[in-house]
Amino acid sequence: MFRIISLVNAAYYALPEDFSFEGESHDFWELGYVDRGQVVVSYGENSYLLKAGEMMFYKPNTFHNCRVRPGRPAAMVNIAFEVDGPVSDVFENEILVLSAEERQCMSTIVREASNTYLRFENLPAEVGLERVENAPYGSGQIICNRLEELMIYACRSERNISLDRRRISAAPADGGADTFERVRDYLGEHYPEKLTLEKIARDNCISVTKLKKLFREEMGTSVIAWLTSLRIKEAKQLIRRGRLNFSQIAEATGFDTIHYFSAVFKKHTGLTPTEYARSLHKK
Question: Taking the model in full, what pTM does it have?
Answer without folding.
Answer: 0.59
